[in-house]
Each structure stands twice: as structure tokens, then as C-alpha cells.
What we know:
This protein is α+β, with helices and mostly antiparallel strands. It has helices spanning 4-40, 57-60, 85-93, 95-118, 125-139, 206-222, 229-241, 281-293, 301-306, 313-321, and strands spanning 70-72, 147-157, 160-162, 179-188, 191-200, 244-247, 250-253, 259-260, 266-269, 299-300, 325-328, 331-332, 346-348, 353-355. The chain has 10 helices and 14 strands.
Amino acid sequence: xxxxxxxxxxxxxxxxxxxxxxxxxxxxxxxxxxxxxxxxxxxxxxxxxxxxxxxxxxxxxxxxxxxxxxxxxxxxxxxxxxxxxxxxxxxxxxxxxxxxxxxxxxxxxxxxxxxxxxxxxxxxxxxxxxxxxxxxxxxxxxxxxxxxxxxxxxxxxxxxxxxxxxxxxxxxxxxxxxxxxxxxxxxxxxxxxxxxxxxxxxxxxxxxxxxxxxxxxxxxxxxxxxxxxxxxxxxxxxxxxxxxxxxxxxxxxxxxxxxxxxxxxxxxxxxxxxxxxxxxxxxxxxxxxxxxxxxxxxxxxxxxxxxxxxxxxxxxxxxxxxxxxxxxxxxxxxxxxxxxxxxxxxxxxxxxxxxxxxxxxx
Length: 362
């Protein structure tokens, strides 16, 4: 039989249970509201690139972290670098620099993917270059000398190996039987990603392209810290000479001896030049434009045209004659021959090699 004391305890216990139930119910309601709220909240999506490309890669990667290139290990005596804690720490310190170069590399990949998709015989070379360069400007968020195009777009044809881009008024048209080297660069704060590939519509040039592609990959594989450049060159040459290319029934080996020829389009200010007095006022004015917009980055006549410079050829010659600006004429092989080129930029990190410009295409 329950005493008065027991009844009081029982009532108190029931009240406590009711309180706990209410607290649990409120907790469930709160959880339901919380879940409902998070369900309705939209996730922030990363935008996809448009076609044609128009979104800056900085907007495509809002975290500020850009894709890493292809990682290759060092060979033989440098293999110890992979596990060295000291070298890893050096890499951690250089991460901001690596990220800047990766941003430039991502721009390069996206631009060349777009250009490859639109290239066809019958296009004016000027249109190809200007489309490519304007796409770089959008994707890299061009900003003076802090971000932009690293050098003029090389679109050298056939026996011309490098350093050719159309000057104003050039009406050269890309043909079905042309072999075109598209060589262009991007930069962030002067750190340059230089990367090139070859375009040929006629399949008879496929072995030529394959030879230069394999030679480039061999050079990358052999490269490393403290490796002699002559050894890298020898490995590349061995691969090139192992190929024989048949064009129109005639068999060729790779040669690769070039000379300066044709009209100059590429120029660069001498990196080591000091103050040189100029008498021609127009040359002084042109030099100011070059310093402001290019510094020691390479430029071409089309870039001067775009900046509004006119009647500057005499002033440009004056700067070249004075040794302030260096002309970079096209590099040519024997007329009637064909030259192929593939090129990548390699980052020699303390622990490994990063082929910074590698993509799905090559």
C-alpha cells in the first residue's frame, strides 16, 4: 500500500517523464525544421565553360586551386627526392607560385581545346591568331603585365619551324596540305607556360607528327635536376632519327637544321640592355609603349596595331639598330620540306617533375 510520501514521489516522477517527452518532441520538431531548411538550400554550383569559351578560369575554380599537371618521378640518382621531408617542405613553401603557373596552364588547355575544334582549311591565319589570342585574354583575365599572353602566337607553316605570325594585311590562308605549328604561351606575373602542337589535315603527315610527339615525350622523360641538356638533346635526336617519313612517295628522315628567313614579325626588348640615348622622338614614344605593355615579353606588330600605334616601322627599326629591341625572324628549314613540333612546359619541383601543360590531347 502506497504511503503519502510514495504518492508524492510518483506524481513527481510522472511530471518529469512528461517534461522529457515534451523536450524530445520539441527536439524532433527542431530537427525536422533544420533538415527541411537545409534541403531547400541550393548548392553553389561551379560554372561550366561556355562554347566559345568566355568564363575566366578563376571563376571556374573559385577555390583558387588549379589542376595539377602530370607527375613524373625523377630517374636513378634523383629518386631519393620523392621521400625527402626537406624537399617536401620546400614544395609547400612554393605552393603559391605553382598555383599561379597551373592557372596559366589551365588557360592554355582550354584555349587549345577550343581552337582545335574550329580549325579547318580555308581560314585566314590572321583570324586564327586573333581568335586564339582574344580567348586567352578572356580566360586569363588579362591584367597588364600581371596576367596575359606570353608571346605572339606562332602559326608557322610547312618548312617554317617557328617565330612566324601574320603581320597586318597578310592574306595567308590555311590549306588542306599545310603542316601548321601552333605555338602560344600564357603567363601569370611573368611565369610562362610555353606549349605547342602541330595541325595537319592530310593523314600522310601523321608519321611526321608522331615522330615529333614521341621525341618530345622522350625529352620530358629524360629531363631532371642536374641532367645535362646535351644528354636530353641526344635522346631526342635518337628518337627522331629512328623515324622515316614518306611524303608523296618520297622517304625523309628528320633533319631539323634551321636558319633565319622571311619578314620579321616577332620582337623582344633586350633583357640586359641599359639606358641608351635615342635621338628620334618617335622611337622614344614607341619604347615607352613597349615598356608599359610588354616589358621584356615578346611582342609582334599586330600587338602594336591593337594598342593604336601607327607608322612605327622606322621607330621600331631605330630601336633594333640601337640594340634596345631584338628582332626574332622566322626560323626556316629547307624550302619545300615539312617541320612538326610538340612542346610542353615542365616544372622541376624538389620532389618530382610536373608536366604543367599536359592535357588529354597530348
